[in-house]
Specification:
The protein is 37% helix and 14% strand. By secondary structure, the protein is an alpha/beta fold. The strands form three sheets. Strands 5-6-8-7-9 form a five-stranded mixed sheet, with no helix packed on it. Strands 1-2 form a two-stranded parallel sheet. It has a two-stranded antiparallel sheet with strand order 3-4. Strand 3 and strand 4 (188-189) form a beta hairpin. The relative contact order is 0.09.
Amino acid sequence: MFRPISAEIDFVALEEAELVRWREHDVFARSMQQREGAAPWVFYEGPPTANGKPGLHHVWARIYKDFFCRYQTMQGHFVQRRAGWDTHGLPVEVEVEKRLGISGKKAIEEEVGIAEFTRLCRESVHTYVGEFEKLTERIGYWVDLESAYWTYHTSYVESVWWQLQQLFNKELLYEDLKVVPYCPRCGTALSSHELGQPGVYTDEFDESCYVQLEITDTHDLPGATHLAVWTTTPWTLLSNVGVAVNPEVTYAVVNGLVMAEALVEAVCGEGVKPDDTLSGS
């Protein structure tokens, strides 16, 4: 009834044999057909950008997604799993700029032209689709690659516009102000994902500013006349309305200045001793 099991197990061979069986018997499609008409469990595939080679982080993300989809299918739900390809964003544009040996919007407009640059971006996002498809099958991630959506297709763009229209009609959209990271080279705001790209964040030496803020009520603060404040953004000082202290930190008074006790020598110089100490609480 059971096949003999070798003491020397080749896990790679076992996986590859199972993938062949799935492919030959169209197991994924059949698992979907068996659940047609059942209560749906909605899954949206967060698509990768295929202008770069897939990495280990793609494996992690896809395995996690596969866990949920398979579990919900085993629970009796109908789980549609449509693949997609992300073709928008700075990673695509920056990759094309590197290939052309240019940098910035001015160079794009003057040396290449917007229409040609857009064409090259569309071409770039197809570069490693084959590699992603091979990876997807190899790790056993069940997703419909044949009917994958592309975010640059008109149908997809119009679907996003339609959704925004529905939100607007229901008065769920509003205009407000928000502080966001900005790239002066790219001339655009940056998303959290774009901030995580290699080389985006670097440690730099820059000027900072020390400010003495006068204490208007020195009751219970013997010898203290000013708070020592350090900032790398002095242009925000005009709008500051308060100073926060940490109740778990001990503060020191040096010549009337209040600062963290642990930073006395760093601020005032080696060998300087505090005149008094205060509790942050």
